[in-house]
């Protein structure tokens, strides 16, 4: 499933050599961001990973996991892109955790699975503390806004242009 609906689908658009780590959330559960964090740390130990260039993206429930992990470990990521993500009160209550992150939030304007209000509410709290964060609404997309987000080469150019200050 990860290969069908993610940057893997559009990896030919990525113009630099990259390593992509794409875990799949177990069925009938929510993302365990502690486990994902430790997985990233393990990969860093095993492979030569530029720690200033770690990027995070996810769609739908993976978008929720993306936002949650970025909230818990903002120091780890050079750029974060959530796509059609549900949000929760914990994210808006801890909005300051996102203040120094390079962020893009993508959502379908016609999404009837995760309502666009999720993106609007998060962005309304985010923009005052992080004016460079972007909200991108695909007005005619339903829940599958990931094809619109991930098929755009500018997403990868933007991500890969970002480096985390050490």
Label this structure with key terms.
166 residues
Largest sheet: 4 strands, parallel
**Strand-pairing-aware structural class:** alpha/beta
Following the backbone from N to C, one meets helices and strands in this order, namely HEHEHEHEHH
- Helicity range: 25-40%
Could you describe the 3D structure shown?
- The structure is a single chain.
- By secondary structure, the chain is an alpha/beta fold.
- Helices cover 34% and strands 13% of the residues.
- It contains 6 helices and 4 strands, in the order H-E-H-E-H-E-H-E-H-H.
- It has a 4-stranded parallel sheet with strand order 1-2-3-4.
- It is globular.
What is the compact description of this entry?
Helices cover 34% and strands 13% of the residues.
Secondary-structure map:
Blueprint: H1 33-46, E1 55-59, H2 61-72, E2 79-83, H3 89-93, E3 103-108, H4 117-129, E4 134-138, H5 146-150, H6 153-160
Parallel strand pairs: 1-2, 2-3, 3-4
Helix pairs in contact: 1-2
């Amino acid at each position: 499933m990860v290969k069908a609906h993610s940057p893997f689908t559009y990896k030919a658009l990525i113009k630099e050599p990259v390593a992509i780590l794409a875990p799949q959330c177990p069925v009938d559960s929510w993302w365990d961001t502690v486990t994902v964090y430790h997985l990233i740390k393990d990969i860093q130990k095993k492979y030569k990973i530029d720690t200033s260039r770690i990027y995070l993206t996810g769609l739908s429930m993976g978008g929720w996991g993306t936002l949650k992990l970025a909230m818990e470990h903002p120091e780890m990521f050079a750029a974060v892109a959530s796509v059609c993500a549900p949000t929760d009160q914990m994210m808006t209550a801890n909005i300051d955790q996102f203040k120094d992150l390079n962020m893009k939030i993508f959502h379908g304007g016609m999404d009837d699975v995760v309502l666009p209000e999720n993106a609007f509410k998060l962005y309304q709290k985010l923009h005052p503390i992080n004016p460079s964060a972007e909200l991108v609404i695909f007005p005619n997309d339903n829940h599958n806004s990931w094809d619109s987000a991930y098929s755009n080469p500018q997403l990868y150019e933007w991500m890969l242009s970002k480096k985390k200050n050490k």
